[in-house]
Structure formats: structure tokens, C-alpha cells
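Quick start: what a row looks like.
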Amino acid sequence: MRKHLFIVGFLLSTLLSAAAPKLTVFIVVDGLDVQSMHDMQPYWSQGGLRTLSEEAFQVEVNFPHWVYGGEETVATILSGLTPAYHNYQTDRYFRRSDRKPHLFLSDQTQTGIHSSETLSPAALSCTLLADKHRLKEGGQAKIYALGVNPLTTVLLAGHAANACCWVDKSGWGTTTFYPEGLPASADRMNTKGTFNEEAKRVWTNRLSMESYLRPTAQEKKKNGFSYDCQKDLRHSPAANTLVVSLALEMQKAENLGKRGQHDLLLLNMTVLSPATRTARIASAEQEDMYICLNQDLGFLIEQLEQRVGKADLQIVVVGKPCFGYDAGQLQTAGMATPAFNIDRAAALVGTYLMAMYGHERWVDGGFGNYIYLNRTLIEQKKLSINTIRRQVADFLEEMEGVHKAFPITEVPMLQGDGEVAKLRNSTGRYAGDVVVMLNSNATLMLNDKQQLDYVLDDEPTVPLLFWSGAYHTFPDLSSPLPATYILSLLQ
């Protein structure tokens, strides 16, 4: 049931419909993978993922743009737009003024509360799910975003949430951007030690090694695994348990779903364990993360059904692709994985242009798939920027791992589907002067400090599950259906 991203827009529109229940819980799970969910299903005799797999409308979502494993897919899902419009191409963007990459959601006008992170959605000019909900429901609706990953959680909160909290080193953290600051429920978990008590938990395998599908040789040798969750809290089942605990505390404190308005609770959870290098299950600890997530979701759904009532509860779960294919595994299978270093490419381009036009700094730098030329210098020298872009593109196509290179001005005019369409959809405000398309098995170095040791999946899919207490079964959408029909099914 592979569907394109446009269906997500239709599903999300039901959250804003007049017939919507009183509480919608929207959950983004880092690393949730279609194949892994299928593989793990026999382990779920009960629990949240079992309930969703049996009762929810399910669809596989793929993305019409390049996926780097960051929050660009979350921005796409929550806005219904591609990076060409929402501009969130990667978690960082290249700033020409100082020739350095900067965190896209960093906001120095804000102050972290119980956190060193100074984040806000101010850089995003588009409306996100929380914003659309606020516009429809006005000030009466309550909107809270809670999560493991600060960046994901800020995107979930959008511009209009009452509050936004994420798992920080020693407690729940937030930013001064949101009007309620750190909610009282989160502050109590911090001050009373509830947060630290859960964070200090030691995570060990719940099953014997023989019971897991793909334990590693090291796990078999040690007859298990053991982690102090506090050392890598955001990649442990303790983080998910903390999110569920605070979500239930917030529901109780704010009476979410019981006030006559349509409230929105946005959560970020994870199935990424500390040693995870690929979305495909490759260790017992990854499997155990799924087992723990199933239990946490089961408890969340059970409690909310009792408190809110099944008919007034709606749950959406969607995965976030974080990895591609492990380079080491591909090499073991005999596949070459040439590395493309964007910094090295930018340096070579600079040398090339010096040989042609003189000893000057012709290149500002490289980041992601882009080369950024020194436009100021080119203008001062009265040279043609379009001519130099074309020369650089031709030069880059000779490099290892490069499939094609284009001057940025040519991208909107490129014809075709597949990777060409993804290139068009990925080219936003922060694109450089020349863009590089890599071979499908090449690894990418965003810059010298951000080596990716995996091959980006050129067509990642994630599951989306839509569960509503008002519905019991959904038809099999094995073939494309008119948008109006899909929308009518869910209203």
C-alpha cells in the first residue's frame, strides 16, 4: 500500500474537521520502519502497536524530496509542503555571511528553560499542524508538544502550541518562545525527582538472546546487553516512558479532551537504540526498543480511552526516517560505497576557479549537496555567475560518487520524475549555486565534522497509522482512490 505524501495531507485534514473527536494524539516515532514493524508483529500479543496494526487505517508514506535523516521529513509531514517551500532542507543550513553551517531552528532571541537549547520555529514561514489547528479552533483549544528530540518536538509544537517540552540531560527542557514556558506538570517531574528516577534506569534485554530475530555476535557472546539509560537517554526506552508519563500528567492537569474543545497532544518517541546504524533491525537492542515502545503505547491508549472515552479519542502514529543503509553491510555484500566529501569538493572547485580566473577566494564553501560560490567577488570582477556555475557543474561531474551536477538556476526547469523531481522539490531558499546528485550507493559527508557512515535511502518509506475510536474497520486502499473519497472515509 505504498502511497505518496499527498495522502498525508488528506489524513491530517481530518484532524481539523468539524466531526473530529475531542482529543487527537499525533505521534512521530524516530526510526519507525515499515519492514521492522512487520518483522516484530509476532512479538505483540497485546499492546499499542498490536492495537494499531489490527484496528488502524494504515498507509506507507514516501517522500517526494531528498531525505537526509533529519527533521526535513517532519517539516514536510506537518506542513504538507516540500523543502522547496518550507525551506527545511537539512537540520543545518549554510550561512554565507560567516561561511558556516547553523542549526535551522536555532534562535538566539530565545532562552532555554532547564536546557541549553535555544530553539524556536521562527525560521519556518509556513503553517504547521499545530498552527492550522490553532487557526481553526482559536484560543480555546489546548495544544501541547512533548518529545525525545528537541528539533522534532519544536516542529510538532509549531508557532502556536501552548507549551513545548523535550527530554534534556537532567529533566524536561523548553524555550521561552512558548507562552506557558515549562508547564507545571513537567516542572514537578523535574523537582520531585520523577524524571531522574526513570532516567537512571538500567536497560537490559527482556528476552533471552535465542528469542530475538537478529542479535549481533557481540550480544550473543555477552548473552545480552546492558545500558545505563542516563548516558544516552534520548536513545533508550526510558525516554519513551518519560514522554508517556508526562503526556498523561498533562492530560490530567489540563483536562485535555474533556472540556468540549478539540485539544491536540503532539508526541515524539523513538525506536533508535544507542548502537543503531540502520533503520532495518540489525540487533537485539533494536528489537527490544520496539517491544518497549509497544508497551508504552499500549499503556497510553488504555489510559486515554478510560479518561477521554474511546469515541472522543483519535491517534495518528507516523515514522520518521533517520538512516539509510549501513555502508559496512553494503561493502560486505560486495557493493562499493564511494564517499563524497563536500568540503573536499569545495576546495577542489576553488583551486579549479583560481586556475581559470586568478588567485582569489572564489568559493564560500560547501554543505550538503551544494557548492556556494563567492557571489560578491564574482560580481566585483564583472564575471558571469551563470557561466561559472555551469563550469563548476561540469567539473563536479568528474568526481567520484557524483551522478550529475546542475547550476541552481537550471533546477526549476528540469523535466522528469524520480530523482529529478526530488531535486526540484528539495531546492529551497538555502540552496547553493551548484547542486550535486550522487550515485545511489555513495555516502555523503555534509562537512568535515558530520560524516555519514551510511548510504542515504533514496526512497525511504514510513508507516502512518490512523486510529479513531469512532471507527472499527477501514477498507483496503490497495489502489489509488480519489482524494474526496479518502477524505469522506475519515470524516
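That is the whole record. The chain is about 35% helix and 20% strand. The mean pLDDT is 87.
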